[in-house]
Structure formats: structure tokens, C-alpha cells
Amino acid sequence: MASSRAPARRAGPPAPLNSQPQPTISMEEWEAKAPLGELETRSIAAIKLASEYIPFPAKASQSTRTFSDEAGPSSRPGTPLAPQLQRRALSTAAGGSSSRPGTPLAGAQARSTHALHPKAPIQTPQQFYDWFAVVDRSVAHSQEAHFRAHVAGVAEHLAACDSLLEKIEIVEREVDAMLEGWRGVEEGGKSLKDACEKLLEERDGLLELTEEIDARLEYFQELEHATRMLNHPGESLVLQTDFLYMVERVDICIDYLKAHRHFREAEIYLFRYQQCMTRAMTLIKMYFVGSLRALSVDVSKRLSEKDVSPTAQMHLLYTRFKSVSTQLLPLLSELERRARTHPQELSALLEECHTAYFSARKSLLVGRITEEIKGLDPTRTELVELTRAGCSYLKQLCTDEFELYRNFFSSGEEQLYQYLENLCDHLYDDLRPRILHEPRLTALCEVCTVLQALMVLDVSSVHDDDDDDGSESPQSRTRDTETLSLDLDAPKTGGFGGRLHISHLLQMVLQDAQTRLFFKAQSVIQSDIRYYVPKPEDLAYPDILVAAEKPASSTEIREKESVSERFRLPSIEKQDTWYPALRKTVWVLSQLHDFVKPAIFEDIAQEAISLCRQALVAAADIMRVKAPLDAQLFLVRHLLLLKEITQNLDLAQRDGEASGSGGGRSVGDAVGMTDTLASMLSRTTSLLPDALFASLGMPRADESIREAKHGVDHELRGACEAVINLCTEFITQPLHDWAASPASSSTANNAPTKSKPAAREIAAAFERACTTELRGHAGRLRLYLEDARTVTARVLLEHVRERIGDAYEVFWQAVDVGREDVMSIPVARKLLVDVCT
Description:
Elements: H1 2-10, H2 27-33, H3 38-52, H4 61-71, H5 83-95, H6 107-113, H7 125-143, H8 145-230, H9 241-259, H10 266-303, H11 310-341, H12 343-376, H13 383-406, H14 413-436, H15 441-466, H16 474-487, H17 502-530, H18 543-547, H19 554-567, H20 580-592, H21 598-624, H22 628-649, H23 654-661, H24 667-670, H25 672-682, H26 689-693, H27 708-740, H28 759-784, H29 790-814, H30 825-836
Helix pairs in contact: 1-8, 8-9, 8-10, 9-10, 10-11, 10-12, 11-12, 12-14, 13-14, 13-15, 14-17, 15-16, 15-17, 16-23, 17-20, 17-21, 20-21, 21-22, 21-27, 22-27, 22-28, 25-29, 27-28, 27-29, 28-30, 29-30
């Protein structure tokens, strides 16, 4: 099989069809043409020996050994050599295993020893030829034996290679099968891994689902525990630790089921849980009401005994209740918290607790409050003293009740204040009629002072709790008063504050007092200001001013200082020289300034100032009949005082500036209006109405005057113009008349100037009028406008001096002849300065 496959592997490309066959060369010709030397022969022999036994690969060693054992030693003859080597080879072949025939032997021995010997004697030539042919073929065959051996070796190698290839192919198929198996195992392992991971995920999902179901079932399973506990109640059930824990769990379950109403039977369980919560809170309410009722009965019995000291009463009314509150506070806190969370179901229970508490406290306190009020004797005690004592007692009582209530509850502030107001009504029922029928304005102001003092102390205590250092500045006190007045109408919120706001309890009484104060002030304004009829001694100016130069008594000084502190007027110490309507206006406004709301005070202040201005104008009209200049100076003096009052009240922005400036104006600020007037008057030589008061912010003459201070500005402007005219008219009129007359200028015909009054006489009359009458007017002007208003007097005199000087300058320029005999302009102006200084 190997021999048949060998030529196929060794075959080369086919020979061309038209190629000539190569000539064949015999071995003898090859040897003859290519003789070999000894060295070449040895080399060939060595190559032959080395190539005859080529080792097979290690993988084919077994098959090689088997084949070698079967074939035996090689019988391939060597290459023909020289005659000596040829004979040696023949002799070796004859004695070895060579197939080359040796020398023919004689007889039967030769026939038996060699196959080429003829089996029968050769008798004929043909037999010889046949035998010779056999011998010849044998010789030829023996000569080609080594080639055949080589071919056999090559074939053997080819067979070994084929065997190796087959084994390689088998190994490859095995390796491919192993790879396929490995891939199958890999894919199977991956699928198994994925399946295992999926199973693990499913297991984790099931475990998580189981845990979630268990967690959700807890909200449903809690119902059994809560129902079992509530079905076996006892008097001490609410005091057990598990009770509040059960309530907390039920509340959590209610919130959870409200958020997950889509769960199956969630509505049913939610309804049952709400029933459990209501039952639990009802047990708390019943326990609280029962404990409170038992305590109230015991305290009432002890209070009804004789000779119970005030200390014992305080112990029974407050200490006993506080000791019980330590046990009830946790339960009531739970009820309040649940009522805020579930107002529709539980707010009624909390209100019942509040009602029971207030009823118990009221039954214990009403009799004691009535006795205390009777001890104050409301019918005979002075109104201010009754207000101070009664409100102080109620403030302490309400504070104690407030603190006691906080030991039980943390909500229900509105109900608490209603309860405290009911307690205060026992005093208010006696106090309100006295306030509403009180005819004295000062008494009403003192009542408001007492009430506001209690409120301010309450507000200040709140601020002291907020301040670590406890310091209080004037700004903070002003802020407290303003906060008090602004917060009286503020509604009480639902949150529970940390302190009792006594202002809410005193608010009604303060409002009654303020209302009565307001109407009484209006009555005083109408009677003593609007319809005031002046007496002759009220208009005795300037005698009143001259008499006021003597020092005032200490009592009058203190009264004036009290008004000065409110309005900060620089001339307040001489208010005896004021017109009575102005004094009454200042007094009424000083009484109302701190006791009514800013908006109400602004309205009544504008009304009072407007009526006072009208009263001053009417008084000046009466005085003008006898003394026009005194009437105008009286009006200027009092209008300046009234304007300063208006400026210091600051009706439009009193609240904002009070908090921003920290407490009002100083004395220097009070003069600011007068300084402005002075600077305005000094900027103009003619007292034109619009230019005169435009810088003061006063309205023009053609504008409607709607507010009281604008009316004061309008009247003050006219009064100043009238004063300047009265002081200058009697001096400047002759000068203007002489300068305007035709005789004062030269005519075309050079007419003599003797017909007109002599300029010297006019100048002399001018000098006499300045030194006498003008000096007297200047002194009177200073008398009316003394103190801080001296600045205004000086400014008015400067304008008087300027107007007279301008008139004299016109006169002097009109003089054509004899100027040297007339007083010059600088001399005239210096004279005016000396007179007006």
C-alpha cells in the first residue's frame, strides 16, 4: 500500500508531448566517464552508511523497529569500485547474504546451493541462452539492488510520513472534537451560570418581596394588639407604658394606611385604627376629667373651711394642681398632638378637656375674685387708684393662671384668653361705668397711664427675656410703647406663646378710657378753644409780656417743664404770656399725645390747631382796633408758637421718626423752623408772598389749604407782611411821596424848586422818625419775639431796615440840588443799623 502511494507523492509535472527521450547511460559508461578517487569513494561509502539507517521520528519509532526486524539486514550492494575492491566485495557477497551469483560449482552441490544453477544440465544452446538470460537478469537485478533498497527505504519513509500524517489528522480531529466539546462545555457552563444567577435574582426578589409583605403586614397586624389592649381597660390603663407605645403605633399605622389607600381592605383597617385612636384618646379624656373633678371637689372642700390662710389658699389652688399636672401632662400632650394630626376626630375631645379645666378653675376662683373686688370698694375708691389696684391684682391672677395652664396644656391659647377675659370682667363691670362717666380729662389720662404702664412692663419683660445682658436703651423703650399701641388690635394667633400678653386683657378697658378721653378732649376743644370768648385781661398786650419778666414759682415751673418735655418748646417757661386758647391747645394735646392711637391723635391735633389758629386770628382782629402793630405782633408770636408745636408733633411721620431718631427733637431742633424763616427772609429784599415762604414748604397763596399746619403757615405769612408794613409805612411814605412828586425834578423851563418841600426837611423828619418811632417799634418787636424767636425778630428788623434804606436811597437819588445838606445813603443805613440793633 505504501509502495503504491509513493510514486503519486513523488510524481512531478508531466513531460511535454513533443520532447525527445533522453539517451540512457549504463553503469559502466557512468563509471568510465566519471571515475572516482579514493577520497570520493570513502566519502560515498560514509554517506551510504549514514543514509542506510536514517532514524525515524520519535512518534514513529515503534513502527520503524517493527519494520527493521521484519526486513533484516540490508542486502544492498555497494557501488562498483576498483578491481581489488570489486573482488573484496564479491568475496564478501559470496560468503554473506548477497544475492549476487558466485562461481558456478560442479555437480549437485552447486544446484542445491544456488537458485540460478540449472535444474538440469544444459544440453542445448537454447537452454544455455535461457540460463544465461536468467543469470544476466540476476546480475542486472543484483546490480540494481541498492536502488531498489533505496526506493524501498524511501517508500518506507513515505509510509512512515503517511502514517504520521494520518496520526496528525487523527490528532487534529481529536483536537477539533475537544475544542468543540470545550466550546459546548463553555456555552453550557455560561448558560448554567446565567440560569443560576437568574435563580439567585429570583430568590433575592422573592426574599425582598417576602420582607416587604411582612413589613406591610405589620401595619395590619398591629390592629389585633391594639384591640386586645383596649378591650380590657382599667382605671390605670392610660398610666401603663405600653399604652402610649400602642397609641404611637396606631398613629403610625393610620398615617401609613392613609398614604396607601389602594391596598386591599385598607379602608376597613383605617376605620378600625381610627376607632382605636378615638377610644384611646377618650380614655385619656375620661381619666383627666375624673382626676380634675376629684381634685376640684377636694380643694373646694378645703377652701370652704374657716381660717384658711392666703398661703394655704395658694397651695390649694396652684401647688396641688401643679403636682397633679406632672402625671397628666404626658397624656394631655399625646391628646394635643393627635388632635393637631386628626382634628376632625379628636379636636372635640381636646375641647372637652379645655372646657372641664376652665369650669373647674372658674368654680374655684369666682368667689375669691368677687371678695377681692368688694375689698377694693369700687363705688368709693378713686378711679385711678381703683384702676391701679384692680388691674395689678388681675394681672397677677392672670399670670398665675397662665403659668398653671401651661403645666397642663400647650395649645388652646384662644380659649385661655377668653377664660382670662371672663375673670377680668368681674372688675371691668365696675370699672367701665366709672370710666365712661368720668368728667375729668386728667383722671382719664392717669387711667390710661396706669393701663399703659402695666402693658409696657409686660412688653419690657418679654424683651428682657430676649436680651442676655438685660440692658434697655431709650430706643427700646420707645419701641415697646409703639409696639404696645400698634399691637392692641392685633388678633391672637393659634400658636401658644411663651409669656402672657397682658395687653390683650387690658385692651378693652384701655379702649374705653381712650374713647372717653377722645370725646372729652373734643368737648374741651369746642368749649375752650373754638367758642372761647376772650376777656379784656387776655388781650392786654404788651402789658402781659412786661409783667412776665418776674420769676415764676416752682410749681408753675414743674408744670411747664412737663409740657416742655413733650413738645420741647424753647419758651415754654413763659406760657403765662400765651393766649388762653393756645395754652388750652397745648395742654389738651399734651394729655392726648401718649394715650391715643397715632391716627386718632393726628386728626384731633389738626382740629385743635386749626381752631386755635382761628381763635388767634379772631383775637388779633379785636386788638387791631386799638393797636394794629400789637395785634400783628401778637398774631406772629402765637402763630410761631403754634407752628413749633406742629413741627414737633410731626403729624405726618411721628411714628417713623420716633423710632429712627430715638426719642424726638432737641431744643436746637425746635429753633430750626425759625432759622429757616430767618434764612428765607434774609435772601430777599422785598417780602413777596410766593418767594417768602416757598423755601419753608408752605403752600402758595392761590393753593387750597387743607391741613392745619398749612393754615398756620398762611396766617403767619400775612402777619409777617403786616408787621413789616406797619413798621416801615410811616417812615417810607413821605420819602416815596416826595420822590414821586413833579416838583422833585427839574423842568424844561428851569422852574425854581422852592415850591416843593425842602429835601432837608424831609431828611430831618426821616432821622427823627428813625430815632424815635422806629426804635420803639424795634423794642416792641423784640418784646413779642423773645428767646429763641429773637432770631426771627432780628430777621424781621433786617427787612424793615432794608425796605427803609431802599426808600431813602430812592429819595436821595431824586434830590438834584443841595445833596450836601441831606444825609448820605451810608450815613442813613448806619443810622438804621444803630436804631434796629
